[in-house]
């Protein structure tokens, strides 16, 4: 992600995502661009109640599995209680069904987890203006998939998971939870230098240049959900 300084028309918004590191990084980037970010809360289960109580203009709501049953129940609840709040879903590359389900639940837009900050901001502004906010390439991809369905799509998450050792998977999960080198070392019972080496190896294997990019890639491909929680 490339994040810079931008928009002068600040929006009152909330960022709610299961992965705290992503939520806080996105909230910080949006604050730098002049927006008033109310919260960057983590658990999806309490997301709807939090948004209803704070009533932002726009809510960026993270989801790891747009095709799963009930994935957009929080959107339904928010729109029922606070119809004036525009909800933009933040998630992995969705299937056409995933995009349709998000809009059917009342969402105003859908943005990929790894979208550039300019794209996220465009979606926020469109949603606040009452317009549908979906990147053209996402729609093109969805229509392309409808017209030319792939029999067995490449499972990028599974492929990436196979590249990592169990210990590296644990390191990646901890990185995505926002743990620094010291916390990773303490949680795994290893030296900070060893933890740092593991982190560098994970970044190298995933082909990314930063911890934030690694967390975004893991979230987008569903790798974190396959890996499960760390002990």
TrEMBL record:
Domain HTH luxR-type: 157-222
Gene Ontology annotations of biological process type: phosphorelay signal transduction system; regulation of DNA-templated transcription
Pfam families per the UniProt record, alphabetical: GerE (PF00196)
Domain Response regulatory: 12-128
PROSITE patterns named among the record's database cross-references: HTH_LUXR_2 (PS50043), RESPONSE_REGULATORY (PS50110)
Protein keywords: DNA-binding, Transcription, Transcription regulation
Protein name as annotated: Two-component system response regulator
Listed CDD domains: LuxR_C_like
A GO term, aspect molecular function: DNA binding
Organism: Streptomyces griseoflavus Tu4000
């Amino acid at each position: 992600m490339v994040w810079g300084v931008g928009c002068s028309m600040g929006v009152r918004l909330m960022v709610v995502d299961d992965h705290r590191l992503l939520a806080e990084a996105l909230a910080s980037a949006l604050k730098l661009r002049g927006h008033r970010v109310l919260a960057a809360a983590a658990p999806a289960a309490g997301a709807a109640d939090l948004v209803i109580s704070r009533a932002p203009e726009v809510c960026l709501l993270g989801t790891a599995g747009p095709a799963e049953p009930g994935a957009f129940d929080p959107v339904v609840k928010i729109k029922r209680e606070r119809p004036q709040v525009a909800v933009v879903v933040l998630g992995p590359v969705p299937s056409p069904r995933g995009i349709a389900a998000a809009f059917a639940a009342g969402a105003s837009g859908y943005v990929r987890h790894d979208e550039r900050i300019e794209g996220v901001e465009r979606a926020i502004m469109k949603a606040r203006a009452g317009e549908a906010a979906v990147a053209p390439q996402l729609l093109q991809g969805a229509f392309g998939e409808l017209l030319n369905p792939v029999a067995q799509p490449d499972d990028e998450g599974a492929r990436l998971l196979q590249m990592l050792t169990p210990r590296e998977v644990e390191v990646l999960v901890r990185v995505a939870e926002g743990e620094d080198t010291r916390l990773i070392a303490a949680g795994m019972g290893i030296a900070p230098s060893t933890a740092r080496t593991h982190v560098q190896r994970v970044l190298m294997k995933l082909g990314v240049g930063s911890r934030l990019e690694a967390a975004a890639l893991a979230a987008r491909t569903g790798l974190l959900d396959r890996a499960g929680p760390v002990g």
